Amino acid sequence: MRIQTIPSDAVDVLIVEDDNLTRQTLRLLLERRGYRCAEARDGRQALTLAQDQSPRCVLLDLDLPGLDGIVVARRLRDDLRTFGTHIHCLTGLQSPWVREQALRSGIEAFLTKPVDGHSLLRIVGSAVKLEEEVKAAVVSGLTKAQAEEVLDWLENHNCTGLAIKAEEDGIAVRCVCPPSFRLDQEEDSGLRLVRTGT
Questions:
Q1: How far is 81 from 144, CA to CA, in rounded Å?
Q2: Within 10 Å of residue 15's Cβ, how many Cβ atoms?
Q3: Which residues is 170 bridged to in the sheet?
Q4: C-alpha 58 chain-centroid distance
Q5: At what angle do helices 69-78 and 43-53 cross, to 10 degrees?
Q6: Rounded mean pLDDT of the chain?
Q7: pLDDT recorded at residue 130
Q8: CA atoms of 157 and 180, how far apart (whole Å)
Q9: What pLDDT does 198 receive?
Q10: pLDDT digits over 87-113, tens only?
């Protein structure tokens, strides 16, 4: 069993937009309100940054070079490191078919370009509470029986955002710890919650 903690200095918002001016404008608006931001100009860079920095929210352009926004959203939902990330799309596309595909890929809300600043701050603010310190963890390398025990233990200890996925070396379980706690491993291969700062 291995425990990977998602870092507490994870960015609040990952802005994925191929237009430089739009991307920089969104970042400036959000950083003025206290959000920590990262930027990606295409789908591949977005996936790399998301895996490295575990954003709490992604603002995702649908019309990207290379991997489009719908493919990126699906991959974010399939990865336990980013399974619980809020994904909102930036789009100038109004087609009902595109919206349906976006919703199926895990996108939660739509911001139509040009983006209204008040709508942006409302949507991001509903996904990211600046006062919260979110500690998430992935427990991997589990057998099916171990995964069931881990899920029960996490649920009984008020962990949320539970997700499970089969991987090459076994089963992995993702969770979000209660406020002010992180997940750690006991010597006897059990789990424990440790108050952060101790």
A1: 20
A2: 26
A3: 167
A4: 7
A5: 30
A6: 86
A7: 62
A8: 13
A9: 46
A10: 999 887 778 888 888 889 989 988 888
Q: What token pair was written down for 124?
A: 């991001």
Contact (Cβ atoms closer than 8 angstroms) between residue 40 and residue 49: yes
Percent of the chain with pLDDT over 70: 94
Q: Which two tokens stand for residue 103?
A: 């919703």
* Tokens representing residue 126 in the block: 């509903």
Residue 6 parent element (H or E) = strand 2-6
3-class state of residue 42 by DSSP: coil
Say how far apart CA 190 and CA 153 lie, in whole Å: 10
Its pTM stands at 0.74
- 189, exposed or middle or buried, with CB in 10 Å at 0-12, 13-18, 19+? exposed
Cβ–Cβ contacts within 10 Å for residue 138, how many? 21
Residue 74's SS3 state is: helix
Strands (E), the chain: 2-6, 13-16, 37-40, 57-61, 86-91, 109-112, 136-142, 160-167, 170-176, 181-185, 191-195
Nearest to 13 by CA among 177, 130, 178, 133: 130
- 96-104 helix and 69-78 helix, angle to the nearest 10 degrees: 20
Place of tokens 């199926």: 104
Q: Which of 183, 23, 46, 194 is nearest to 115 (CA)?
A: 23
List, for the chain, all residue ranges whose pLDDT scores fall below the cut of 50. 198
pLDDT at 10: 72
Please tell me the predicted confidence (pLDDT) of residue 15: 97
